[in-house]
Design brief:
It is built from 35 helices and 16 strands. With 907 residues, it is an alpha/beta fold. It comes from Pedobacter africanus.
Length: 907
């Protein structure tokens, strides 16, 4: 109980201690030093800790730095229960001070450290839910990681129920409602409000808290009349009594919610009145020290001024908010090195950029927008759950589009290349960032000692998570139970990875400069890219050649163009060849119109290697088959396909391409193929698989595994021991999440089951249907099987965008291998194989349509691959005979020497 009382008193004190943003390093007074020295001599660690905590609250200017030095200054570790409780209190206060000073990421780490310390030493402390779990979860909501917040909130709820703490239970239900509301799951959010209301006993501040959140939910649902009714009643209920230190916060929150509702109604005068009342309460009861609430209120007041076109007044408010976050230096200049990840920081920089735009200050607007993206990127870097990262990337894409528009305006106005380069950097911030993290993480892990138990435990946890996800796909009724189990496993995995970072600092993936300023300079001069950005209002197409941006194209009516691309891909490719065969002219004209829309105005040199970086729906297109000129002829072989002009390969982003380019070629490794026809199996029999294997076996020397010899274990072994891995089988998208799936002879392999390996093939050929297809993730692209192999470190993949015609796939892949054996790079070899299909005169006319020959694309860094040609049996026997002859000669020579050295006496 003593620790609970101390925590309460000290956390009350901090609210009146003044802003903690600016840390002042001044010497600790001699009296305090002497007291600490005396306690050390008495070996009284508990009081030594409490003395440091007490001093930090009396001297807030150096509170955080002094607290954080405690572990280094202590002469030993805690031993007794009392000492361990004191140490837990220290960790909790370190976390709170960091949160209060705005350092949310470090605060999260400290709360996690406190909780792990609590569980490790099995401490029996009543306040753990209130002073560790609850603020820890709230920190995750500030970052936007609502899944992790909900996981910790559930733990907090369990503690509250165990301790029969109804007040805590109500508070947790409210926080869970906030998390579900932020995820857009209003049904679960309102269910939490109902559960909290049942537990709340009037008169209770808990009911006020719940009604504030309920009004926010109605506001988000645009049910503004209901929202206003709830919040007005809530404010009136609180006006009947004078607020105290605790209840004043709920009234402050009510005024903020009321202001948000009126702001959405565009009733700016009413909104301003409510926000000003919130500020007045903050200043009266908390001396203005609830910094996050104060900053939010200032930002909302600034939005009112923006709406009224009062840009200078808005700027002042936004700058005041940034000052509260400790980000402004002399003359109001932003200290970029201090920018951290926080949702409110993202918002204030974004709004500030809009204000600069109203003032005609384009450069400053772009800079502020990029600060907003930097803060967002720092959040994304800290998020652990992949789905949370994907959602977050999609949410920040709107800001990226605005930033690109600003940079393009400056480029057109000034002609300075730095703004063209900025456009590429901003686009890259929205491209395959999760994939890039996976590639770098796998590269770094494999460069370190894999014998460390930490790595083994990490692999075990990843495998357990993958197993549960497999079970969820195959047994949907067990989803809820397995999701809870996976949440616990992911929590343990995140903690483990933080421990790995402490032991292996080089394992960290730097996030201070998310997209290098010299990105273009890292490219080979021959690299020629066309990169797409699909925004809400505009589509941007950027051409990069010779390390410079050559051309930027902006396409209006983005949503209409996206629908056009989706309809085109679905009608002519995903639904089969019928539409293309029945109406070839309609396809020709639609394809040419699409080419003009996306690439019209670009002049690509003949036989140039072109790297396409798609975005969103453009990922469903194979550009080889697009029609470059508009004059129709019934003779399909004379159609002006783009393949006749360029060798086209694909990449997920420029940065992933650079990483794949750095992959070292596997020396001494060979070709291996897995060919599964599914004969006598429940799945559809694929007779063309056997023919494909026979065709390739006549071309390439290697190991060919068929049917029973092509199981999941064979796949895993082949992945580790080949430079070229060929997989010919069924592929499809499983479940509601459209998980890319490969069917082997004995079982399936889902994309999420693929984990990092010591080595990876230089090339994976996925001769199967829709292996380059998958669920669409905004900002990340298509989550395909091809993408999964890229994450594991493969140099590139040949994969299918739609249901591959068996005979076409067989001939084209065989032709590709033949071309690679002549020394052609992968992309060139695939292009020539497609052209060879088009040049064969004996085909039926419809087989020259792109549906048949254009499904397979190469995604990755284009390079030459060493393969051994088939049919070298005599040459191989000759080499073997030479080795045997050399060995026999060696044995004969050794025996002859030995006979000469043995004396007669020894016989």
């Amino acid at each position: 109980m003593e620790i609970l009382v101390r925590l309460y008193i000290l956390l009350i004190c901090i609210l009146f201690s003044g802003p903690l943003i600016a840390q002042i390093n001044k010497a600790v007074p001699p009296g305090v030093v002497n007291s600490l020295d005396s306690l050390e001599k008495l070996d009284n660690l508990s009081e030594w800790i409490y003395t440091r905590i007490d001093y930090s609250y009396q001297n807030p200017g150096q509170s955080l730095s002094f607290l954080m030095e405690s572990e280094a200054q202590s002469w030993r570790s805690p031993k007794s229960v009392a000492e361990k409780e004191a140490w837990l209190m220290l960790l909790s206060n370190q976390a709170y001070n960091q949160m209060y000073s705005g350092n949310i990421l470090q605060s999260i780490n400290s709360y996690e450290q406190a909780y792990n310390y609590y569980t490790k030493h099995k401490l029996n402390v009543e306040g753990i839910a209130e002073y560790v779990l609850k603020p820890w979860a709230n920190n995750y909501t500030r970052l936007g990681d609502y899944e992790k917040a909900l996981f910790i909130q559930q733990k907090t709820l369990d503690f509250a129920k165990k301790e029969h703490n109804d007040v805590m239970e109500v508070s947790v239900y409210n926080n869970m409602a906030i998390s579900y509301r932020s995820l857009g799951d209003f049904q679960k959010a309102e269910a939490c409000i109902v559960l909290g209301t049942k537990k709340s006993k009037p008169p209770s501040t808990g009911l006020i808290l719940l009604n504030n959140t309920l009004a926010d939910i109605y506001n988000d649902k645009n049910e503004l009349d209901l929202a206003e009714k709830v919040i007005t009643a809530n404010i009136n209920r609180q006006k009947n009594r004078e607020p105290d230190f605790e209840s004043a916060y709920w009234l402050l929150s009510s005024y903020i919610t009321a202001g948000d509702i009126q702001l959405k109604r565009q009733l700016y005068a009413k909104a301003r009145t409510y926000y000003q009342q919130a500020l007045a309460i903050n200043n009266k009861y908390y001396k203005g020290n609830r910094l996050r609430e104060k900053a939010y209120t200032l930002i909302q007041l600034g939005k009112i001024n923006l709406a009224l076109k009062q840009a200078p007044a808005a700027q002042n408010l936004f700058n005041d908010a940034l000052s509260l976050f400790g980000l402004t230096g002399p003359e109001g200049k932003i200290r970029a090195e201090r920018i951290f990840g926080d949702n409110r920081l993202i918002d204030v920089f974004y709004q500030r950029a809009l204000a600069f735009g109203l003032l005609g200050m384009e450069k400053e607007a772009l800079e502020s927008m990029r600060f907003s993206l930097l803060s967002a990127d720092k959040i994304r870097f800290e998020l652990a759950d992949v789905k949370t990262k994907q959602r977050f990337q999609q949410q920040t894409k709107q800001m990226a589009e605005k930033a690109i528009d600003m940079a393009l305006g400056l480029l057109q106005k000034t002609g300075q290349h730095q703004y063209a380069a900025a456009i590429v950097q901003i686009i890259e911030q929205t491209k395959a960032r999760i994939l890039l993290d996976d590639i770098r993480k796998n590269q770094q892990q494999l460069s370190l000692s894999t014998k460390d138990p930490l790595f083994q435990e990490r692999t075990r946890l990843e495998q357990a998570i993958a197993y549960n996800e497999r079970e969820m796909l195959q047994n949907p009724e067990a989803t809820v139970r397995l999701e809870e189990r996976n949440a616990e496993l992911k929590f343990k995995l995140e903690d483990l990875e933080k421990n790995m970072l402490k032991q292996y600092p080089s394992f960290a993936i730097g996030n201070d400069n998310p997209v290098a300023a010299n990105l273009l300079q890292q490219l080979p001069s021959r690299a020629h890219f066309v990169e797409f950005f699909m925004g809400a209002e505009h589509i941007y197409v950027v051409e990069v050649a010779n390390r410079r941006v050559k051309h930027v194209k902006r396409i209006r009516h983005a949503e209409n163009i996206k629908k056009q691309i989706s309809s085109f891909a679905r009608l002519y490719y995903q639904n089969g060849p019928a539409a293309m065969m029945n109406q070839p002219k309609a396809f020709f004209m639609a394809s040419h119109q699409l080419y003009n829309t996306l690439l019209g105005g670009f002049n690509f040199p003949e036989n140039k290697n072109l790297i396409i970086i798609p975005d969103e729906v453009t990922g469903y297109l194979s550009f080889d088959g697009l029609i470059t000129r508009g004059k129709y002829t019934p003779e399909i072989t004379r159609w002006p396909f783009l393949i006749n002009t360029c060798t086209i390969t694909y990449a997920f982003s420029i940065q992933t391409w650079i990483n794949q380019a750095a992959k070292k070629i596997n020396p001494g490794k060979k070709f291996e193929g897995l060919f599964v026809s599914h004969q006598h199996k429940s799945r559809q029999f694929i007779p063309a698989v056997a023919k494909e294997a026979e065709a390739i076996e006549k071309i390439v020397s290697g190991k060919f595994r068929r049917d029973q010899a092509a199981g999941v274990k064979d796949f895993s072994k082949a992945f580790d021991n080949t430079s070229v891995l060929h997989i010919s089988t069924h592929a499809y998208l499983s479940g509601t999440q459209k998980e890319p799936t490969l069917a082997f002879n004995d079982n399936e392999v889902f994309l999420f089951e693929l984990s990092s390996r010591k080595t990876a093939p230089d090339l994976v050929v996925l001769s199967a249907c829709r292996t380059a297809d998958g669920a669409m993730s905004g900002g990340e692209g298509i989550i395909s099987m091809s993408r999964g192999f890229a994450a594991l470190g493969t140099g590139g993949t040949i994969a299918g965008l739609w249901n591959v015609n068996d005979r076409a796939a067989s001939e084209i892949t065989a032709g590709c291998y033949s071309n690679m054996l002549t020394g052609q790079e992968i992309g060139t070899a695939l292009r020539h194989a497609k052209q060879q299909w088009l040049q064969q005169p004996q085909r039926a006319p419809q087989e020259y349509l792109p549906y048949y020959w254009d499904a397979l694309i190469y995604m990755g860094y284009d390079r030459k691959i060493e393969l051994r040609p088939a049919g070298n049996t005599l040459a191989d026997y000759g080499k073997l005979s030479a080795l045997v002859l050399t060995a026999l000669c060696g044995i004969y020579y050794l025996r002859k020497i030995r006979k000469k050295t043995i004396s007669p006496a020894s016989v």
